[in-house]
Amino acid sequence: MIAFFGTPQFAVPTLEALVASRHQVALVVTQPDRRRGRGQKVTASPVKAAARLHDIPVYQPDRLRDPEVTDTLRANALDVCVVAAYGKLIPAGLLSLPRLGMVNVHASLLPKYRGAAPVHRAIINGDTETGVTIMQVVEALDAGDMLAKSVRPIGPDETSEEVERALADDGARLLLDVLDQIEAGTARAEPQDSTVSTYAPRLTKEEGLIDWRLSARQINDRVRGLYPWPHAYSYLNGERVILLKTRVQPDSAEPAPQPGSGPQPGSVDISGNVIEVVTGDGRLAITELQPEGRRPMSTRDFLAGHPVRPGTTFGR
What is the DSSP string of 238-267? Predict the structure, then answer.
């Protein structure tokens, strides 16, 4: 008997895999409905929507430390709890309730990138590899012993949305193997080396503002890592512009411009239907963007309605 803790889309493939397996999901625990989207409508989480499709009871406590939560879980005589991006720390009082403990599906190669945004931080930092770790849940953040890992490369053009979707599927498959091992008593737990752990904090909107003094590679990684939220952005002719797709121009590496000597970081060139921007090292091509309050568009469509003169500079 399993209780599943999860909230966003990342957790849905794991829930679906459990439902399709021989295991029985007795209860889904997800965060309370929130206001989401531009219209701020109260919306159920993706996990709640998936649970409803399978007629699984859904429980949405405001606080996991409330005594009612303990009573609800205990009433289900649980063998194991599975956690996948639930969004809150599991308090110590709940960890001993399931007979075989709690396991977590985490989208990084622990101990690297403990925390809320492991995929985004990996891409922003220019990593070329990531993966999924199945670990035991302990009271400390993502610090439990590791039960299994799955590794995958990060493609040079992949966004956090694409990588996270692939890791969600990898994690779902890996979890089922681990559950079989736990049931058979053959699971092996490997302690994490906390001395080399890193932290992946939640993303903020403020992180999206581009510093054009960074290299073209660093800015391109930031654009990929902040997609689909909160997005990288800058200002052009006083208008906020979201950068959706970019690429590092080949053979564009060049020394950082000295003050007053040639084009400065943020300076714009137009090459055909592409906006090229001078950075602290190399040039970045913008191929898809979104002006404030408008739809996403190619740079060709943008330039048709927003003529940009060479030498114009991104910035406030």
Answer: TEEEEEEEEEEPTT---PPPPTTSSPPTTB
